[in-house]
Amino acid sequence: MSQLGLQQLSSPEDADLDIVFVHGLFGNRISTWSKNGVLWPKQLLSQDLSKARIFTFGYDADVTKRNLNEEVTKGTMESHAADLFKGALGDGTDNPSLITDKTRGMVFLGTPFYGSPVASWGKIISSMVNIIHATDPQKVKDLDQKSEKLHILAESFASALHQRIRDKKEIRVAFFHETKKLHGFLVVPERNSWISGFSDHSSINADHSSMTKFADEDSPGYQSVLAAIRKVSASPEDEASPTSKAAGFVNNNWGEIKNQVLGDQTIHGGMTFN
């Protein structure tokens, strides 16, 4: 079965919210979000957010080439984004503004806005791997902490978020970073995982790969992410309600956030290594 494109995981008749999960490098639309056979967006989140249509999106995100002559991707990242927009709209319309105008927020898990120190290390590894399995050097280079392209993208994203606030069309954002090392490295350190000026950021007590995988509803990581999604999906009316579950978080220590609600999102993403 293909791992590319948009796959619907839940379809309630009275849906009032769409949530789209987007994996990162080395991931795919199923394994990135699965642990012990549990695809948590489908088996856990759909129970807690019963009125949400839940989707997972897959694209070719490997930094290797299938062989020495074949490029890893069949299109640019821009074309993958276009595929996501068209799939979400359901009618093939190429008009991203229809999606962005209705986006309430985003939650990011281990996303390297300002690069990864592991990227430089990855160049050394990829040079050895190239002997038997070619890698795409530009993709590895673009993840380096000194990547000018990444810094420009991060600052442009921050500028766009601030503009939405000025236009009274705020897209809320929440950020999570890992606390445990993967193969001896913090793949995305805290300082690289969030945009300055937006205070909703916290940690998940896991490594870069495990931070997106939850096996049961009692997992503190799942409770934290659920809280984030609830906050980002809350309407202004919900937030004004005294019984609302929407609440903020700033620099929470692990374990203190389990019973809080953090984040605000309809699109959920992050870079993962499987």
TrEMBL record:
Subcellular location: Endoplasmic reticulum; Membrane; Mitochondrion
Keywords, sorted A to Z: Endoplasmic reticulum, Membrane, Mitochondrion
One GO location term (cellular component): mitochondrion
SUPFAM superfamilies with a match to the protein in the record: alpha/beta-Hydrolases
InterPro entries: AB_hydrolase_fold, SERAC1
Coiled-coil residues: none
UniProt name for this protein: Uncharacterized protein
Organism: Gibberella subglutinans
Taxonomic path: Eukaryota, Fungi, Dikarya, Ascomycota, Pezizomycotina
